[in-house]
Design a protein that fits this description.
Number of strands: 12
CATH class of the largest domain: Alpha Beta
Strand order of the largest sheet: 5-4-6-7-1-8-12-11-9-10
CATH architecture of the largest domain: 3-Layer(aba) Sandwich
Largest sheet: 10 strands, mixed
Number of domains: 2
Distance between the termini: 23 Å
Order of helices and strands: EHEEHEHEHEHEEHEHEHHEE
CATH superfamily of the largest domain: Thiolase/Chalcone synthase
Structural class: alpha/beta
Shape: globular
CATH topology of the largest domain: Peroxisomal Thiolase, Chain A, domain 1
């Protein structure tokens, strides 16, 4: 790893999704391939029917930016339950990942609203105000790098990264329907709108001998052929991000056992993954253990900023419990503005 990378590990996860009200339920549903997608109250005026959506089961439901904290707080609290000393929880810095600034119908005050509502619902008063990162799915890299800086300076022993997002507003869905990006009766090339909050508790890597998920490489790239642009998709951004991450970890793609992705049923993302895989020269595994590409969005709906922590949490539980395809995973997320982030994840060695 270079000087910009500080080795960290994920030790716990928390989730509130359409597949479950906590991480244990969500991960179990994904493992069993049980979908949380159901008919919602988002109307498709062309088909004259309601759309399928991924909505968490909450005691009450409403839409808008203040609702996001209602999802995020339980995920964060679930993460912090891994800390034995309750007093420690107040000193844990929190990064909140939210939708990017170019999201259709995004509230101009979203960052402040989410932060204020989050603090008002949190069952304790944190020592520091949460840091809100408005970069969507790829905000995960900014949060990991920020956490690494805190660890280097000895300003924190643990950090929580929580992503929270929602596409479940009629006007937002209509904006994406106009771009033919939502799955409907008349369009098979689209995503299912969803909402969720997913969190991970991270700390500096203490030792390669542990039962925690280590982030051993990361990289970033930029795709010029945007999903809503006029230039053709090249796959350069994702390939660059993954190549950098693999290089930092001193591994090749052939050394990874499976791939955690943010694929959401849009052909664009599937094509991009295929291009990157070809360029990175993935060698075929034996027929008995084919290389697996995981895309949990098919069970949760498109959850935007929450997908990064979701993938980390899923990888942690799969490898820790022993039902994952192996102990080394490739992971990536991408945002509509062309930013791509790649990670290499490794389960710590057993004693």
């Amino acid at each position: 790893m270079d000087d910009k990378t500080f080795p960290i590990e994920c030790i716990a996860t928390g989730m509130v999704t359409a597949a479950g009200c906590n991480a244990r339920a969500t991960v179990a549903a994904i493992r069993a391939k049980v979908s949380g997608i159901q008919q919602g109250n988002i109307w498709d005026p062309l088909a004259g029917e309601y759309l399928e959506v991924g909505r968490p089961c909450m005691p009450q439901w409403w839409e808008g930016p203040d609702m996001l904290a209602e999802l995020a707080v339980p995920a964060v609290v679930e993460c912090l339950e891994a800390l034995s000393i309750e007093k420690q929880r107040e000193d844990v810095p929190i990064f909140i990942l939210v939708s990017p600034l170019d999201r259709p119908f995004r509230s101009p005050n979203l960052n402040d609203i989410v932060c204020d509502e989050f603090l008002s619902r949190l069952p304790f008063v944190p020592s520091e105000k949460p840091i809100v990162v408005a970069r969507g799915r790829t905000g995960l890299l900014h949060a990991l790098q920020g956490s690494g800086e805190l660890f280097k300076k000895k300003n924190a022993d643990y950090v929580v990264v929580v992503g929270v997002d929602s596409f479940l507003r009629q006007e937002v869905v209509m904006a994406y329907m106009e771009q033919r990006r939502v799955l409907t009766k008349d369009n098979s090339n689209g995503f299912i709108p969803g909402e969720a909050a997913c969190a991970v508790l991270i700390r500096p890597m203490v030792s390669p001998v542990s039962q925690n998920l280590q982030v051993v490489g990361w990289g970033e790239g930029t795709e010029v052929g945007l999903i809503s642009g006029n230039k053709p998709l090249t796959g350069d951004g994702l390939t660059e991000a993954l190549r950098k991450a693999l290089g930092q970890s001193n591994r090749k793609m052939a050394d990874t056992d499976f791939w955690l992705t943010d694929q959401n049923a849009e052909h664009y993302k599937a094509k991009e993954c295929t291009i990157a895989q070809i360029r990175l020269e993935r060698r075929e595994h034996p027929a008995a253990s084919p290389y697996q590409v995981w895309h949990p969005i098919e069970f949760l709906g498109e959850i935007g900023s929450a997908i990064g922590p979701c993938l980390l949490g899923l990888g942690l539980e799969a490898m820790r419990q022993g039902w994952g395809p192996g102990r080394c995973a490739l992971m990536h997320v991408g945002e509509d503005n062309g930013t791509r982030v790649g990670l290499v994840l490794l389960m710590g060695q057993k004693e």
